[in-house]
Amino acid sequence: MQGILLVNLGSPKSPTAKDVKPYLDEFLMDERVIDVPYLLRAFLVRGIILNTRPKKSAEAYKKIWWPEGSPLIVISERQQKKVQELIDIPVALAMRYGEPSIKTGIEELKAKGVSDILMIPLYPQFAMATTETIDVLAKNLIKKHFPEIKLTSLPAFYNKPEYIEALAESIKSHLEGFDYDHLLFSYHGVPERHIKKSDITKSHCQINNKCCVTNSKAHEFCYRHQCLETTRQVVEKLNIPEGKYSSSFQSKLGPDKWLQPPTDDTVNEFPTQGIKKLAVVTPAFVADCIETLEEIGLEAHHEFINHGGEEFRTIPCLNDDDLWINALVTWIKEWKNN
Ligand SMILES: C=CC1=C(C)c2cc3[nH]c(cc4nc(cc5[nH]c(cc1n2)c(C)c5CCC(=O)O)C(CCC(=O)O)=C4C)c(C)c3C=C
Ligand SMILES: [Fe+2]
Ligand SMILES: [Fe+2]
C-alpha cells in the first residue's frame, strides 16, 4: 500500500529553556546545519551557543506559543488532517528534530500496511540544512530499520504552478485594502558556504546578480536561485512592478557570511527610502513559526515603526489554506497514479 509522510523542522516541547536546550542541541549539531567538523561543531554549539541561546529563544517562543502548543506543530497537524481528509491512503506527520520523529512516522505508516512512501519535506526551496538533511536521515532509517519499504522524496516545489498560485492568491487576499509602498519577500537565510557546497557543478554559483538567473543544472540544488525564482514568478503573476518588491534573508546566526541582504537591516532602512507602508511575506515557510511570528511579526514590525515606518503588515504563511492543501493533494495524486 502507498502512504504519505509530511516532514517539517520541529519545535521544542515547551517554551522553556529546559526544553529549548535539547531541541537546539539536536538541531544545531546536525552536520548539514552547522557544517563544520564534529569537534569544532560541538565546541561552538555546546561550548558557546547553548550557554545563552536557550534562555533567549525560550523568551521568544513564549511570545508566540499557542494554548494548544507550538504554532509550527499545531499548523503541521492541521495540514496533515486536511490532506488526509482528501486522500484515501494513510498520511503521517513527522519532524526532523524532536517529536514525532521521522522513524515514528515511518513506523506509523508501516503499522497501517504501507510499503511505498512519498515523503514531502515541507520546504518550498531546497537547502542542505532542510530538504537534504531530511532526505539523508530518512534514507538511512529505511536502510537500517525498514529495508522492505520503498521511499520517494518530493523535490523542492519552489516553481511548481500549484505552489506559486497558492502563494500569489494568499498574498493578494492579505494585501486587499492595503495601499502598500513595498512588498518584501523575506526568506530564511543560510551561510553562503552552504550555497557553494550544494553546487553540483562546483563551478556555477558565484552568489552574484548573474549566476542565479543564468540557466544551469546547478539550480536544482541552489537555495538562492530557488528563492529568487519564487519571488520572480509570484510578482509576475500579481503584476507587481519592478521596484515595488524585493527579496531578503533573515535569521543570521554566528559570524559566517550569510546570504544578502539581511532582512533586519533592509527593513530598518526602508523608511529613509520613503517606504512607510510595508508588507512582508515569508515564502521559505509553509507554516507560521517562531521565525515568522516573532522575528518578523513582532521584532521586524517593532523596528520598522521605530525607524520611522508607519504601517507594517505580515502576510501569514500558507498554513492550512485550501489552495495550498489542494496543491499537496495534486502532487500526491500525480505520484499515486504513476
Ligand atoms: C546555522 C543555523 C541555521 C540554519 C543554517 C538554518 C536554516 C534554515 N532553517 C529553516 C527553517 C526554520 N528554522 C527555524 C528555527 C531556527 N533556525 C535556527 C538556525 C538555523 N536555521 C535556529 C537556532 C532556530 C530556533 C529558533 C531560534 O533560536 O532562533 C524554524 C522555526 C522552528 C519553530 O519551532 O518555530 C524554521 C521553520 C530554513 C527554511 C532554513 C534554510 C533554508
Ligand atoms: Fe532555521
Ligand atoms: Fe546561483
Automatic annotation (TrEMBL):
Keywords in alphabetical order: Cytoplasm, Heme biosynthesis, Iron, Lyase, Metal-binding, Porphyrin biosynthesis
Matches recorded under SUPFAM superfamilies: Chelatase
Catalytic activity: Fe-coproporphyrin III + 2 H(+) = coproporphyrin III + Fe(2+); heme b + 2 H(+) = protoporphyrin IX + Fe(2+)
Pathway entry: Porphyrin-containing compound metabolism; protoheme biosynthesis; protoheme from protoporphyrin-IX: step 1/1
Top EC group: lyase
Compartments it resides in: Cytoplasm
Top-level taxonomic group: Bacteria
Residues engaged in binding Fe(2+): H188, E291
A Pfam cross-reference name: Ferrochelatase
Documented EC number(s): 4.98.1.1
CDD domains assigned: Ferrochelatase_C (cd00419), Ferrochelatase_N (cd03411)
GO cellular component: cytoplasm
A single BP term in Gene Ontology: heme biosynthetic process
Keyword Disulfide bond applies: no
Molecular-function GO terms, alphabetical: ferrochelatase activity; metal ion binding
Role of this protein: Catalyzes the ferrous insertion into protoporphyrin IX.
Family label: Belongs to the ferrochelatase family.
Name assigned to this protein: Ferrochelatase
Species assigned in the record: Myroides pelagicus
